[in-house]
Structures are given as C-alpha cells and as structure tokens.
Design goal:
about 325 residues, alpha/beta, 9-stranded mixed β-sheet, 11 helices, about 30% helix
C-alpha cells in the first residue's frame, strides 16, 4: 500500500462535519448468512440482544434519511449482518437517494440479482463495497464460510458491467482484512484487475475477536492518545434508533440518545459529543470508559479513510 500520513497538525471537526455528521453508520440488520470466524457478531451474544429489532424499521430509517438528505450525509449500511437480507433493503436505499442522501453499502455480495443491482446502480448508489477477504476459493471458504466464491465473482463483475453500461457514478470497491491465513498481496492483485479500488483493512478485534492480525503496525501512536477521527466525522445508529459514541461500541452498551427523541443534528452538537470531543482534543480520551479499553484506537487514521477510498475509486474507475 502507498505510504500515507495518518496524523495531522490540528484536530477537530472536519470542515464538512461542522453542521452535521459527514457519515451516519447504520446497524441496519442483525441477521447474516455467513459464519465468518473473525466476525465480532459471531463471537458474541449481540444478535441475541437484538431479537426484538433484527431489522431496522421503516420509521427509524425514514427519520434518519429525512434528516440526512438535506446535508448530503452518507448513510453507510452495515452493522450486525448482511444488509441485503433486509427485505426492504432496496426500497430503503431508493428512499434515501430520493431524499438526497449519499449511500455506501457494505455487503458480502451473496444476495444480489441482476434486477436488484441494476435498480441500486441506476438510483446512483455512491459505493458498493464487497467484503471479500481473499483472492482465491480455498482461502475464501475458510474466512467466509457459508458463502460461494463463484457467486461472489459473478455478482461483482455484474455490478461493474451494469455500472459501466448505464454510465452510473457508483464506485465498486472490494475490501480485504489483513488477517493471518490470507495472502493479502495475492488477493489485492486479483481484485485490482476487476474493481475500482481494493481496500486493505486492519484486523480489528472490536473487543470480541481473538487477535488474528497479520499487520499490527499502528496508524496512531498508542502512547500519544491522539484524537480518534471517528468522533469528528461520523455518528452510529442501531436498528432501534439508539446512538452510541463510537462504532467500536457494536453492542451499543454506551448508548446515550435516540433519534426518535432528539434530532441527529441536536445530538451531533449536544453536550455528550461535545464532552467526548473535548476529552480527545486534550489527549484525555482514555478517561472515557469505552475509549479507555479500546483495542483498535491505534488503527484509526485521519488520512487513510473511507473518503480516500472513494476518491481513489473514482480516480481508478474500471470503465
């Protein structure tokens, strides 16, 4: 990967996030059709805790999209499972696009048809990120059990073909977690010939996974407790509409607001986030409970992030 500076001279809200979060990360579903061994949801009881809210409801999703649209905020659909298993996934994404939202879909790529891919790409979905984690069938079967290598390839190639045929703006990205047992260089070479951008991700434990990293080199010096960029650009919402400080809290144990009771903008500028940011800016983020035990803080980057991935994908578009 190219050499990237992960720190910067000054920290604070990114210019694009001063009014409203640049990105709203949605735990859209808590159901999945894969048994990935390094998935924190497979290594915890989080899904059991969401038995009453396995799918984000219309009221919650519409409230989010209605508020995010005017700010062109990016809805990033991920969370505790495969977003395309939501029976209203396409309907909700189309609703968000009509409202003016940008949309980034993170998917294992198994649940698409030509019709659904065409519909989403015609609607101008900003990015489809396929989690692949391998560059050949044998390794894929180990790291992505329950999924089919040939179907993955078919759907990714189909997405690129549809995008190119209708000249849509959608970026097609694959992501590879740098974990033990995966030849990352081989996988990157394989997918680079097919998609716009291959993202190499650090292995994250999320506080649940055993550490299976193949590259533990930190982005941010852990001893310096530099501010975590996530607090200054994004907000995380679960299927119930609850808001937590950080995406690291995938169980939403530290939730402090709900978007059905307070607006996203109010929460973004509210006393909780203000206090959290002040702690981080004064290098005292470890005084926040979840931050004090965060095993993945060191892998945040102020420069190598989703925005750079989108920019690179646009530059290197396979057309």
């Amino acid at each position: 990967m190219e050499q990237i500076e992960h720190i910067q001279e000054n920290y604070g809200l990114r210019p694009e996030a001063k009014e409203f979060p640049m990105m709203v990360v949605l735990s859209f579903v808590y159901v999945c059709n894969a048994g990935c061994p390094n998935c924190p949801y497979n290594n915890s009881d989080i899904r059991d805790a969401y038995k009453d809210a396995m799918l984000m409801g219309d009221d919650v999703f519409h409230r989010i999209a209605d508020e995010c649209g005017p700010y062109r905020s990016l809805l990033r659909l991920s969370g505790g499972g495969e977003p395309m298993l939501h029976p209203k996934a396409v309907e909700h994404i189309l609703y968000a696009k009509r409202k003016g939202c940008r949309v980034g879909l993170i998917t294992n790529g198994s649940r698409f048809s030509e019709e659904s891919l065409t519909t989403l790409i015609q609607a101008g979905v900003d990015a489809i990120e396929f989690s692949v984690d391998a560059g050949e069938a044998t390794t894929y079967a180990t790291v992505r059990p329950g999924l089919d290598w040939e179907r993955l390839n078919q759907n990714i190639r189909m997405a690129v073909d549809i995008r190119n045929r209708i000249k849509a703006p959608t970026r097609i990205v694959t992501s590879i977690i740098n974990q033990q047992g995966v030849d990352v260089d081989e996988a990157e070479t394989y997918w680079r010939a097919i998609v716009d951008k291959v993202q190499i991700r650090k292995f994250l434990t999320w506080g649940y996974n055993p550490d299976n990293s193949a590259d533990a080199t930190p982005y941010l010096p852990p001893e310096e407790r530099l501010p975590c960029p996530w607090l200054f650009e994004r907000l995380n919402i679960d299927s119930r509409g609850d808001v937590t400080l950080c995406g690291e809290d995938i169980a939403f144990e530290h939730k402090f607001a709900n978007i059905m009771e307070r607006s996203i903008k109010e929460i973004w500028h509210g006393p909780e986030f203000t206090r959290f940011r002040e702690k981080h800016l004064s290098r005292r983020g470890n005084e926040i409970l979840i931050c004090s035990t965060c095993p993945d803080w060191q892998y945040r980057s102020w420069q190598y992030n989703y925005w750079k991935v989108l920019k690179d994908a646009e530059t290197d578009r396979k057309s």
